[in-house]
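Re: the 311-residue chain
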Amino acid sequence: MDHLLSFRMIPTSPILCRRVSTSTAAPTTTTHFLLPHTRQPTFRLRILFPPRHAYCPHRYSVTAAAVGGIGVAAQDAAAAATVLAGAYGLVFTFDTLTQRNLIQQNLSRKLVHILSGLIFALSWPIFSTSTAARYFASLVPMVNCLRLLINGLSLGTVDEGLIKSVTREGKPEELLRGPLYYVVVLIVCALVFWRESPCGLISLAMMCGGDGVADIIGRRFGSMKIPYNQHKSWAGSISMFTCGFLISIGMLYYYSVLGYFQLDWHSTIQRVALVALVATMVESLPITRVIDDNLSVPLVSMIIAYLSFGH
Protein backbone atom coordinates (compact mmCIF):
# COMPACT_ATOMS: atom_id res chain seq x y z
CA MET A 1 0.00 0.00 0.00
CA ASP A 2 1.32 3.44 -0.98
CA HIS A 3 1.09 6.29 1.50
CA LEU A 4 1.49 9.95 0.49
CA LEU A 5 2.83 12.47 2.96
CA SER A 6 2.35 16.14 1.94
CA PHE A 7 4.56 18.96 3.08
CA ARG A 8 3.53 22.60 2.40
CA MET A 9 6.20 25.25 2.27
CA ILE A 10 4.88 28.78 2.98
CA PRO A 11 6.99 31.62 1.47
CA THR A 12 7.15 35.17 2.78
CA SER A 13 4.12 37.48 2.38
CA PRO A 14 3.36 38.32 -1.27
CA ILE A 15 2.75 41.98 -0.41
CA LEU A 16 5.87 44.06 0.08
CA CYS A 17 5.43 47.53 1.47
CA ARG A 18 7.78 50.38 0.66
CA ARG A 19 7.54 53.98 1.85
CA VAL A 20 8.30 56.53 -0.87
CA SER A 21 8.78 60.23 -0.13
CA THR A 22 8.35 62.64 -3.08
CA SER A 23 9.27 65.79 -1.25
CA THR A 24 9.63 67.22 2.14
CA ALA A 25 6.48 69.35 1.94
CA ALA A 26 4.20 66.93 0.35
CA PRO A 27 2.53 64.46 2.50
CA THR A 28 4.15 61.31 2.71
CA THR A 29 2.48 58.68 0.61
CA THR A 30 2.88 55.05 0.75
CA THR A 31 3.07 53.12 -2.44
CA HIS A 32 2.30 49.43 -2.42
CA PHE A 33 4.05 47.22 -4.87
CA LEU A 34 2.00 44.11 -5.25
CA LEU A 35 3.94 41.13 -6.38
CA PRO A 36 2.07 38.54 -8.36
CA HIS A 37 0.66 35.79 -6.19
CA THR A 38 2.63 32.60 -6.60
CA ARG A 39 1.26 29.15 -5.97
CA GLN A 40 2.46 27.70 -2.77
CA PRO A 41 4.67 24.72 -3.62
CA THR A 42 3.67 21.31 -2.32
CA PHE A 43 6.16 18.47 -2.01
CA ARG A 44 4.94 14.90 -1.91
CA LEU A 45 7.01 12.06 -0.48
CA ARG A 46 5.98 8.60 -1.55
CA ILE A 47 6.65 5.83 0.98
CA LEU A 48 6.14 2.27 -0.22
CA PHE A 49 4.97 -0.40 2.19
CA PRO A 50 4.71 -4.03 0.95
CA PRO A 51 1.25 -5.54 1.14
CA ARG A 52 0.51 -7.42 4.29
CA HIS A 53 0.32 -10.76 2.48
CA ALA A 54 2.90 -10.13 -0.22
CA TYR A 55 4.42 -13.18 -1.94
CA CYS A 56 8.05 -13.83 -1.00
CA PRO A 57 9.61 -16.67 -3.08
CA HIS A 58 12.71 -16.93 -0.92
CA ARG A 59 10.65 -17.26 2.23
CA TYR A 60 8.45 -19.97 0.76
CA SER A 61 11.43 -21.89 -0.72
CA VAL A 62 13.13 -21.95 2.67
CA THR A 63 9.92 -23.14 4.29
CA ALA A 64 9.43 -25.86 1.68
CA ALA A 65 13.02 -27.02 2.11
CA ALA A 66 12.57 -27.20 5.88
CA VAL A 67 9.34 -29.19 5.53
CA GLY A 68 10.98 -31.47 2.96
CA GLY A 69 13.95 -32.06 5.24
CA ILE A 70 11.67 -33.01 8.09
CA GLY A 71 9.80 -35.40 5.82
CA VAL A 72 12.99 -37.09 4.65
CA ALA A 73 14.27 -37.45 8.22
CA ALA A 74 10.93 -38.90 9.27
CA GLN A 75 11.09 -41.43 6.43
CA ASP A 76 14.60 -42.54 7.39
CA ALA A 77 13.72 -42.72 11.09
CA ALA A 78 10.66 -44.84 10.31
CA ALA A 79 12.74 -47.11 8.05
CA ALA A 80 15.38 -47.55 10.74
CA ALA A 81 12.73 -48.35 13.34
CA THR A 82 11.14 -50.90 11.00
CA VAL A 83 14.43 -52.66 10.27
CA LEU A 84 15.36 -52.66 13.96
CA ALA A 85 12.00 -54.15 14.89
CA GLY A 86 12.51 -56.80 12.22
CA ALA A 87 15.95 -57.65 13.60
CA TYR A 88 14.57 -58.07 17.11
CA GLY A 89 11.68 -60.09 15.75
CA LEU A 90 14.06 -62.40 13.89
CA VAL A 91 16.17 -63.11 16.97
CA PHE A 92 13.06 -63.55 19.11
CA THR A 93 11.57 -66.02 16.63
CA PHE A 94 14.61 -68.29 16.51
CA ASP A 95 15.10 -67.96 20.25
CA THR A 96 11.54 -69.18 20.77
CA LEU A 97 12.06 -72.06 18.36
CA THR A 98 15.23 -73.04 20.21
CA GLN A 99 13.55 -72.93 23.61
CA ARG A 100 10.77 -75.18 22.35
CA ASN A 101 13.35 -77.61 20.94
CA LEU A 102 11.97 -77.17 17.45
CA ILE A 103 15.39 -76.27 16.13
CA GLN A 104 18.94 -76.90 17.29
CA GLN A 105 20.88 -74.04 18.82
CA ASN A 106 23.72 -74.24 16.28
CA LEU A 107 21.28 -74.17 13.39
CA SER A 108 19.36 -71.29 14.97
CA ARG A 109 22.56 -69.32 15.44
CA LYS A 110 23.62 -69.80 11.83
CA LEU A 111 20.20 -68.93 10.45
CA VAL A 112 20.27 -65.69 12.43
CA HIS A 113 23.80 -65.15 11.09
CA ILE A 114 22.62 -65.64 7.50
CA LEU A 115 19.34 -63.74 7.59
CA SER A 116 20.22 -60.72 9.76
CA GLY A 117 22.86 -59.26 7.48
CA LEU A 118 21.07 -60.10 4.24
CA ILE A 119 17.78 -58.58 5.39
CA PHE A 120 19.66 -55.49 6.54
CA ALA A 121 21.29 -55.10 3.10
CA LEU A 122 17.99 -55.72 1.30
CA SER A 123 16.32 -52.99 3.37
CA TRP A 124 18.57 -50.15 2.21
CA PRO A 125 16.30 -49.09 -0.69
CA ILE A 126 13.49 -48.16 1.73
CA PHE A 127 15.65 -45.33 3.05
CA SER A 128 15.63 -41.94 1.35
CA THR A 129 18.17 -40.62 -1.13
CA SER A 130 19.51 -38.02 1.31
CA THR A 131 23.12 -38.06 2.46
CA ALA A 132 21.96 -38.79 6.01
CA ALA A 133 20.14 -41.99 5.01
CA ARG A 134 23.19 -44.22 5.51
CA TYR A 135 23.60 -42.90 9.05
CA PHE A 136 20.01 -43.70 9.89
CA ALA A 137 20.48 -47.20 8.48
CA SER A 138 23.68 -47.73 10.48
CA LEU A 139 21.73 -47.04 13.68
CA VAL A 140 20.29 -50.55 13.43
CA PRO A 141 23.61 -52.43 13.79
CA MET A 142 24.84 -49.75 16.20
CA VAL A 143 21.98 -50.54 18.58
CA ASN A 144 22.80 -54.23 18.31
CA CYS A 145 26.48 -53.42 18.85
CA LEU A 146 25.63 -51.60 22.07
CA ARG A 147 23.46 -54.51 23.11
CA LEU A 148 26.30 -56.97 22.54
CA LEU A 149 28.71 -54.83 24.54
CA ILE A 150 26.35 -54.51 27.49
CA ASN A 151 25.64 -58.25 27.63
CA GLY A 152 29.17 -59.31 26.76
CA LEU A 153 30.63 -57.20 29.55
CA SER A 154 27.77 -58.21 31.90
CA LEU A 155 27.01 -54.56 32.64
CA GLY A 156 23.39 -55.30 33.38
CA THR A 157 20.89 -58.11 33.38
CA VAL A 158 22.22 -60.68 30.94
CA ASP A 159 19.92 -61.52 28.05
CA GLU A 160 20.04 -65.33 27.99
CA GLY A 161 17.99 -65.49 24.82
CA LEU A 162 20.48 -63.32 22.96
CA ILE A 163 23.41 -65.40 24.20
CA LYS A 164 21.83 -68.67 23.12
CA SER A 165 20.90 -67.27 19.71
CA VAL A 166 24.29 -65.96 18.62
CA THR A 167 27.00 -67.83 20.58
CA ARG A 168 28.50 -71.28 20.20
CA GLU A 169 28.98 -72.25 23.84
CA GLY A 170 26.48 -69.97 25.56
CA LYS A 171 29.07 -67.74 27.25
CA PRO A 172 28.53 -63.95 27.49
CA GLU A 173 32.14 -63.15 26.56
CA GLU A 174 31.58 -64.81 23.17
CA LEU A 175 29.42 -61.84 22.26
CA LEU A 176 32.55 -59.70 22.14
CA ARG A 177 34.14 -61.76 19.38
CA GLY A 178 32.31 -63.13 16.34
CA PRO A 179 28.90 -61.46 16.92
CA LEU A 180 30.52 -58.09 17.64
CA TYR A 181 32.72 -58.32 14.54
CA TYR A 182 29.62 -59.18 12.56
CA VAL A 183 27.71 -55.99 13.47
CA VAL A 184 30.86 -53.87 13.02
CA VAL A 185 31.10 -55.13 9.43
CA LEU A 186 27.44 -54.21 8.90
CA ILE A 187 28.16 -50.69 10.12
CA VAL A 188 31.22 -50.33 7.88
CA CYS A 189 29.38 -51.56 4.79
CA ALA A 190 26.50 -49.16 5.40
CA LEU A 191 28.65 -46.10 6.11
CA VAL A 192 31.45 -46.65 3.59
CA PHE A 193 29.86 -48.42 0.62
CA TRP A 194 26.10 -47.96 1.07
CA ARG A 195 24.17 -48.25 -2.21
CA GLU A 196 26.96 -46.65 -4.21
CA SER A 197 29.34 -49.60 -4.58
CA PRO A 198 28.97 -53.36 -5.12
CA CYS A 199 31.78 -53.99 -2.61
CA GLY A 200 29.63 -53.73 0.49
CA LEU A 201 26.90 -55.98 -0.87
CA ILE A 202 29.36 -58.64 -2.01
CA SER A 203 31.14 -58.56 1.33
CA LEU A 204 27.88 -59.07 3.23
CA ALA A 205 26.81 -61.82 0.84
CA MET A 206 30.06 -63.71 1.41
CA MET A 207 30.07 -63.20 5.19
CA CYS A 208 26.38 -63.88 5.79
CA GLY A 209 25.37 -66.21 3.00
CA GLY A 210 28.60 -67.92 2.03
CA ASP A 211 30.18 -68.44 5.45
CA GLY A 212 26.83 -69.14 7.11
CA VAL A 213 25.79 -71.83 4.66
CA ALA A 214 29.30 -73.35 4.71
CA ASP A 215 28.99 -74.05 8.44
CA ILE A 216 25.57 -75.67 8.08
CA ILE A 217 26.56 -77.87 5.14
CA GLY A 218 29.96 -78.67 6.60
CA ARG A 219 28.46 -79.98 9.84
CA ARG A 220 26.03 -82.25 8.01
CA PHE A 221 28.05 -83.46 5.04
CA GLY A 222 31.62 -82.56 5.93
CA SER A 223 33.14 -85.98 6.29
CA MET A 224 35.91 -85.22 3.77
CA LYS A 225 38.24 -82.72 5.42
CA ILE A 226 40.56 -80.30 3.70
CA PRO A 227 44.18 -81.61 3.99
CA TYR A 228 45.61 -78.42 5.46
CA ASN A 229 42.73 -77.81 7.88
CA GLN A 230 40.94 -80.70 9.56
CA HIS A 231 38.30 -78.33 10.95
CA LYS A 232 37.08 -77.46 7.45
CA SER A 233 35.52 -79.74 4.85
CA TRP A 234 35.31 -79.83 1.10
CA ALA A 235 31.53 -79.77 1.28
CA GLY A 236 31.57 -76.64 3.39
CA SER A 237 34.04 -74.83 1.14
CA ILE A 238 32.20 -75.78 -2.04
CA SER A 239 28.90 -74.64 -0.57
CA MET A 240 30.50 -71.38 0.56
CA PHE A 241 31.78 -70.61 -2.91
CA THR A 242 28.51 -71.55 -4.59
CA CYS A 243 26.12 -69.82 -2.18
CA GLY A 244 28.34 -66.78 -1.74
CA PHE A 245 28.58 -66.37 -5.50
CA LEU A 246 24.84 -66.83 -6.12
CA ILE A 247 23.76 -64.56 -3.27
CA SER A 248 26.20 -61.87 -4.42
CA ILE A 249 24.83 -62.01 -7.97
CA GLY A 250 21.28 -61.92 -6.60
CA MET A 251 22.03 -58.85 -4.49
CA LEU A 252 23.65 -57.02 -7.39
CA TYR A 253 20.74 -57.88 -9.67
CA TYR A 254 18.29 -56.64 -7.05
CA TYR A 255 20.05 -53.28 -6.84
CA SER A 256 20.54 -52.99 -10.58
CA VAL A 257 16.81 -53.52 -11.15
CA LEU A 258 16.13 -50.68 -8.70
CA GLY A 259 18.49 -48.48 -10.70
CA TYR A 260 21.40 -48.19 -8.30
CA PHE A 261 23.94 -50.03 -10.48
CA GLN A 262 24.58 -50.27 -14.19
CA LEU A 263 26.65 -53.43 -14.63
CA ASP A 264 28.18 -55.34 -17.48
CA TRP A 265 27.01 -58.77 -16.40
CA HIS A 266 29.59 -60.72 -18.37
CA SER A 267 32.47 -59.08 -16.51
CA THR A 268 30.48 -58.82 -13.27
CA ILE A 269 30.01 -62.59 -13.08
CA GLN A 270 33.76 -63.13 -13.53
CA ARG A 271 34.63 -60.55 -10.86
CA VAL A 272 32.16 -61.95 -8.34
CA ALA A 273 33.47 -65.47 -8.98
CA LEU A 274 36.99 -64.25 -8.24
CA VAL A 275 35.86 -62.63 -4.98
CA ALA A 276 34.01 -65.79 -3.95
CA LEU A 277 37.02 -67.98 -4.74
CA VAL A 278 39.48 -65.86 -2.74
CA ALA A 279 37.08 -65.51 0.19
CA THR A 280 36.51 -69.27 0.23
CA MET A 281 40.24 -69.95 0.24
CA VAL A 282 40.76 -67.54 3.15
CA GLU A 283 37.89 -69.11 5.08
CA SER A 284 39.43 -72.55 4.68
CA LEU A 285 42.77 -71.53 6.18
CA PRO A 286 43.59 -72.64 9.74
CA ILE A 287 43.65 -69.08 11.07
CA THR A 288 40.39 -69.02 12.99
CA ARG A 289 42.22 -68.76 16.31
CA VAL A 290 44.10 -65.73 15.04
CA ILE A 291 41.36 -63.87 13.20
CA ASP A 292 37.64 -64.63 13.22
CA ASP A 293 35.87 -65.56 9.98
CA ASN A 294 33.53 -62.61 10.53
CA LEU A 295 36.53 -60.37 10.01
CA SER A 296 38.72 -62.23 7.54
CA VAL A 297 36.00 -63.13 5.02
CA PRO A 298 34.38 -59.67 4.64
CA LEU A 299 37.71 -57.81 4.69
CA VAL A 300 39.19 -59.97 1.94
CA SER A 301 35.93 -59.69 -0.02
CA MET A 302 36.00 -55.90 0.26
CA ILE A 303 39.59 -55.69 -0.95
CA ILE A 304 39.19 -58.03 -3.93
CA ALA A 305 35.83 -56.49 -4.90
CA TYR A 306 37.27 -52.99 -4.73
CA LEU A 307 40.24 -53.98 -6.86
CA SER A 308 37.93 -55.72 -9.35
CA PHE A 309 35.18 -53.11 -9.63
CA GLY A 310 37.32 -50.06 -8.99
CA HIS A 311 34.87 -48.43 -6.58
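The chain is about 60% helix and 10% strand.
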